Amino acid sequence: MADAERAKRLRESQGEERKIDWRKRKQGRKEEKKKWKEIKLLRKLEKKRMQELVEKQNEEEAKGKEARGRHYTVSVALPGSILNNAQSPELRTYLAGQIARACSIFCVDEIVVFDEQGEDSKSVEGEFTGIGKKGQACVQLARILQYLECPQYLRKSFFPKHKDLQFAGLLNPLDSPHHVRIDEESEYREGVVVDRPTRPGRGSFVNCGMRKEVQIDKQLEAGLRVTVRLDKQQNPESRTQKGIVVASHHPRTVSGLYWGYTVRLASCLSAVFAECPFKEGYDLSVGTSEHGAHVDQAAIPSFSHALVVFGGLQGLEAGVDTDPNLEVTDPSVLFDLYLNTCPGQGSRTIRTEEAILISLSTLRPKIDEAVKEASGR
Ligand SMILES: C[S@@+](CC[C@H](N)C(=O)[O-])C[C@H]1O[C@@H](n2cnc3c(N)ncnc32)[C@H](O)[C@@H]1O
């Protein structure tokens, strides 16, 4: 073969090799690209999976919180006149304490003290003028109930010396979850805004009954009672704790904690209903009487805001008779259910303070059942 021919073939074969080499490299690049694409896709899938996982966790956490929260309320109404049956100022005070404890034991959210004698007391500003003196029973009962509900470390701020509270030292404490001890850990605490200047843009200081004050997220007026949710992470070196102000129902509706009761005065029985603090009103009302229907045969329907009403010495009839807004004489017509909660009683009369304990303990499992059904649990 001529040299020229050999050189041409060599060139051709070298060209061929280069082509193959180039193709191989191209193929290699393609495979690498494919691999990268796969890695990218895998990463994308992993990211999506993680996102879904976080979303699911958040959802479950929210659901858990919702499941922890209690959205229904129970209110109790009773006439203030029951204090007038007590034989001494000490016993009068003790009777109020019994009502407070019975209501806390059964996680009552609101106590309404109504006037069944037409005294028309609307606030706790009045003075107690002595046992048996008409006019002050509702006010005194409401004041003692409020005093006992208030955590001990806040009482100095909210309850100046008052004759109505002269024997309050005799009273058994409520010992409810919002009466948190100084070193006890608690998600929430009740506090009072202290009168101390804060730097601009910083929140007020609150006395929450702890060794350190709590700096909250807002500037609020000194002397205000607030519910504080303490931050989970606290700096132990800091001179203050950190927290945020929440609505007073937060511990109940978000965390399912019993957080004490509010106290309301009503000028007559009908005002108990008419001045209901819930905009939807009470959707379940229960009247109590020895003349009511046998409690064992009663079923409680699902509800959001229940009200259980008790009478005084003369029963609920007295409240109906003196009420200027009511034309009925039979109290049973005012309620969804009118119940005898202690059928076959062995004493001729059950006192109101006893009836509260008896009725709330008989109604408790029925209430539980009703709210379980409503929440589909
Ligand atoms: C001293 S009792 C009133 C008794 C009065 N003779 C009457 O006719 O109802 C005071 C209150 O306790 C409650 N009470 C007393 N016995 C009850 C019973 N067996 N079942 C439900 N509530 C009762 C009622 O709210 C009543 O108004």
Automatic annotation (TrEMBL):
GO terms for cellular component: cytoplasm; kinetochore; mitotic spindle; spindle pole centrosome. Coiled coil: none annotated. SUPFAM superfamilies: alpha/beta knot, Nucleic acid-binding proteins. Residues 1-33 are annotated as: Disordered. The keyword Phosphoprotein does not apply. InterPro entries: Alpha/beta_knot_MTases, NA-bd_OB-fold, Put_MeTrfase-C9orf114-like, tRNA_m1G_MTases_N. CDD domains: HsC9orf114-like (cd18086). The keyword Transcription does not apply. Its main location: cytoplasm. GO terms for molecular function: miRNA binding; rRNA (uridine-N3-)-methyltransferase activity; S-adenosyl-L-methionine binding. It comes from the Eukaryota. Residues 1-20 have a biased composition (Basic and acidic residues). One of its GO terms (biological process) is rRNA base methylation. Keywords: Cytoplasm, Methyltransferase, Transferase. It catalyses: uridine in 28S rRNA + S-adenosyl-L-methionine = N(3)-methyluridine in 28S rRNA + S-adenosyl-L-homocysteine + H(+). It is found in: Cytoplasm. S-adenosyl-L-methionine-dependent methyltransferase that specifically methylates the N3 position of a uridine in 28S rRNA. Required for association of the centrosomes with the poles of the bipolar mitotic spindle during metaphase. Also involved in chromosome alignment. May promote centrosome maturation probably by recruiting A-kinase anchor protein AKAP9 to centrosomes in early mitosis. Binds specifically to miRNA MIR145 hairpin, regulates MIR145 expression at a postranscriptional level. Belongs to the class IV-like SAM-binding methyltransferase superfamily. Interacts with INCA1. PANTHER family: CLASS IV SAM-BINDING METHYLTRANSFERASE-RELATED, METHYLTRANSFERASE C9ORF114-RELATED. This is 28S rRNA (uridine-N(3))-methyltransferase. It comes from Sphenodon punctatus (Tuatara). The gene is SPOUT1.
